[in-house]
Amino acid sequence: MFDLAWMAWTWQTGLFFAGIASLLIVMTLLAIYSPETERVGILRIPTTRGDRLFISLLGSAFIHLAWLGLVGLDLWWASGLSLLYAALVFRTV
Amino acid sequence: MTKTVNNKAWFLVLPVFLIVAFSAVLPLMTVVNYSVQDTFGNNQFFWNGVGWFQELLDPTTDLGGRFFDSLWRTLLFSAIILMIEVPLGILVALSMPREGWTVALSLVLMALPLLIPWNVVGTIWQVFARGDIGLLGWVVNHLGIDYNYTGDPLDAWITIVVMDVWHWTSLVALLCYAGLKSIPDAYYQAARIDGASRWAVFRTIQLPKMRRVLLIAVLLRFMDSFMIYTEPFVLTGGGPGNATTFLSIDLVKLALGQFDLGKAAAMSLVYNLIILAICWVFYTIMTNVDAQKERVEA
């Protein structure tokens, strides 16, 4: 087997990447079994589910960073806020 | 006509996907792993949670202070060179010949600085701007202006900005020139019949036609200047003091100079996120300018 010690894995980062990977798998399956068309939302740009996922993930990263920089620890609040933000993006953008 | 969509074609991208996975995704994953740990070498890592990120985002700490300082320096640098290179590039493109043998000559001349490797550009300017043996530095000093880019922060900034303008303005000019060449003669004839002034022609014909290439030029120049490393590294090494230490230079100092892998990983992830966000904004604007135009034309 490959020696992956140099990658310095931790179970937390493993969980994080597993989450991202499963999101991508879900999106792929959705794209196969329930194809969609672009729609124009409040940003006035045509977006697909994938675009909205990207906007949600990127925004969530910034929400976490802003929370860490401005509010402090206890990132669960930031995660909650990110989920809310993602829901909003998927509904309206 | 209906097109059949065959998603099996995606398998053709598989080799590229594998290469990118090895060259980009795995290293990026490793950086994420590093960013939540600390190491004292020997491949031993200790969990640090979001500690590095917290330190990085707090300007009162050592790490946060230098991160925000470098970030502002880099943003200022990008803003300055965009404000100079874009108008200058347009001006150069407008004054380039449209026909005759001078076209080829000016295109070659414009392309010359773009062909020189970054580290060579840095070396050229390092020698050129020296007060003792460099033509520029010697002349400026003998004009009675005290100029020393290795000792004075302002001089160092001016030298780096002028160097970047020298190196990259032709890219903007060539892109704009391509945009100008695509305007049919009929537009100019119509403008002449209407008695339009030179400014009116520029405002209503040339500038709108250059919009797309200008967006690409701004995006390219912004990304390049925001990630600039080689030229200032060769010219000033980030000095005097930290006056020209841009984000990329600071990152290398942190990662390879001090071998603070955790801190450097946190910094590069935030750096990466900023670039990703800006790229997305530019890309969205660019693709939608096209889409809107298509809708209008349809």
How would you portray this structure in words?
Chain B: Belongs to the binding-protein-dependent transport system permease family. Chain B: Keywords: Membrane, Transmembrane, Transmembrane helix, Transport. Chain B: It is found in: Cell membrane. Chain B: Its main location: membrane. Chain B: InterPro entries: MetI-like, MetI-like_sf, Sugar_ABC_transporter. The complex is a heterodimer of chains A (93) and B (298). With 93 residues, chain A is mostly helical. Chain A has one domain (5-92). Chain A contains 3 helices and 2 strands. Chain A has helices spanning 11-33, 49-71, 76-92, and strands spanning 39-40, 46-47. Chain A has a two-stranded antiparallel sheet with strand order 1-2. Chain A is flat and about 45 Å long. The mean pLDDT of chain A is 87. Chain B has 298 residues and is mainly alpha-helical. Chain B has a single domain, classed as MetI-like fold. Chain B is 72% helix and 2% strand. Chain B has a two-stranded antiparallel ribbon. The longest helix of chain B has 37 residues, at 261-297. Chain B starts with 13 loop residues before the first helix and ends with a helix. The mean pLDDT of chain B is 88. The A-B interface holds A 5-10, 12-13, 16-17, 32, 45-46, 54-55, 58, 61-62, 65, 68-69, 72-73, 75 and B 7, 26, 29-30, 32-34, 36-37, 39, 43, 45, 47, 50, 53-54, 57-58, 270, 273, 276-277, 280, 284, 288, 291.
Mean pLDDT of chain B: 88
In CATH terms, what is the fold-level topology of chain B? MetI-like fold
Tell me the number of helical segments of chain B per DSSP (H or I, 4 or more residues long). Answer: 12
Largest interface: A-B, 24 and 26 residues
H/E element sequence of chain A: HEEHH
Shape of chain B: globular
Pattern of helices and strands of chain B: HEEHHHHHHHHHHH
- In percent, how much strand structure appears in the residues of chain B? under 5%
The CATH H-level superfamily of chain B is MetI-like
Transmembrane segments (chain A): 6-32, 53-70
Keywords (chain A): Membrane, Transmembrane, Transmembrane helix
Pfam family, one (chain A): DUF2160
InterPro entries (chain A): DUF2160_TM
